[in-house]
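#lab-general

N.A. 3:47 PM
ok so I finally got the sequence cleaned up, no stray characters, all 45 residues accounted for. can someone with queue access submit it? mine expired

B.Y. 3:52 PM
send it over

N.A. 3:53 PM
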Amino acid sequence: MSDLDRGIMKFKGADSPKAVAISTFLILGSISALIFWALQVAYAN
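B.Y. 4:20 PM
back already:
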């Protein structure tokens, strides 16, 4: 059993490349959206 099958990722296949890629995309996309939003609010005209 891999370490990714423990903790909050308690489902079979949690360490598959597809699941990791989707998680990475969602996390990085969310961070990017927050940074973009913060810059828009901070430097609003």
